[in-house]
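Researcher: Please predict.
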Amino acid sequence: MTTDDSAFLSIEDASKLIASKQLSPVELTQEMLTRIEKLNPTLNAYLTVTAGAAITEAKAAETEIAAGKHRGVLHGIPIAHKDLFDTKGVRTTAGMKIFADRVPDTDAAVVEKLRDAGAVSLGKLGMHEAAYGMTSDNIHFGTIRNPWDPARVPGGSSGGSGAATAAGLAFATTGSDTGGSIRCPAAFCGTVGLMPTYGRVSLRGAVPLSWTMDHAGALTRTVRDAAIMLQAMASYDPGDPVSVDRPVPDYLRGIERGANGLRIGVPKQHFWSNLDAPVEKLARAAIDSLGDAGATVVDVDWPQVVEYAQILWDVSLCEASAFHAPWFPSRRAEYDQQVATLLDAGNAMPGARAAAARRLMDEARGGMADAVLDKHSVDVLAIPATPAVASTIEETRRRPAASGRIVAFTGIIDFTGQPAIAVPCGFTPENLPASISFVGRRFDEPAMLRAARAYEQIRGAFPMPMM
């Protein structure tokens, strides 16, 4: 098996080869490090590569597995972490100049959970500064580039996670999502991006953007791999004040039930306006293919979504400015102008407006958003993940305000706190990937995963950029 052959294996397939002694964790890790050395100068997906530690972890995994102490499917699998998840002894910058030399003395909960599952950490992935943008064009640590076209953005804020997963520089990556920061890079880079229900995965040790809208999740190359990552990451954590004490189901159980009998709702409002025609065509074709395979597809009314779209950013704007108050505006010169402008907006937000937004959020998460699915007796909602494909880096620099359009669909679901997953659904005439997203009820990730996997089976294998 060549390096390129193994680089794009699914987690499950790589795990089987490890278990059967056809592939060792050390070999797999070394192959990833070789690819990183070759491709990262172009993509800039990794900010910090922990090569020595990764090989040490891989050797430990190999020894444990040989001794019959197999921890599960992630044991010995090389992954990487977004650089806002704290890593003990390894700098965690959150893409910010003011944190350039910040070295935590403990791991984030997500890092702990994946290490306990036996995953090997290759290092830390670059991101948009402070997780506060959608391009990952970072003035402090360099521009991250899209593997499908290095002249284009990979999306943000988890741009390094999207690029590394798509380019075969890790078998899976962690990401965070406040307005679309997992699903947008997944859509732009042609990977699967899973954002779980708010409170399902602990945020302890994650540098925040917005305490009430941040979600921790994963980017992978298959839906089943996304379920595997979520299985390892999800749990109640008393150390995280927003962690929810709910049983964690077996996410692979029922994932292969297929489209037959599945009920899919397609919202009439908001999600089908102001999107590019090629993206709409691909998203509708994906939904139609599920109908052809036995799913029931119905249009649903979701009038509240219009109000959510108008007010959802009021919460995150204020919370982001509150977190950055120790450094901003006193150290304004150390922030990118785009981030500084957003922090200014949060500081100027009237308290009454922020309170009204938070009240609406509580109502949405208290059952109003899920009621839309209940009213129409559907299992999931299907929407385009983003209204457009990846723009060029040059274009985003000329028109920075255009990034707001990219999160017009994803941000709604951060606000409602429901789980969502983005799955590639084809290529536009520019040969750029587009994505369909499935949204479930709060804490019903299994239905969302079933729908995503059913579509993935219909679609067939999705190519990765062969760099």
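Model: The chain has a mean pLDDT of 97.
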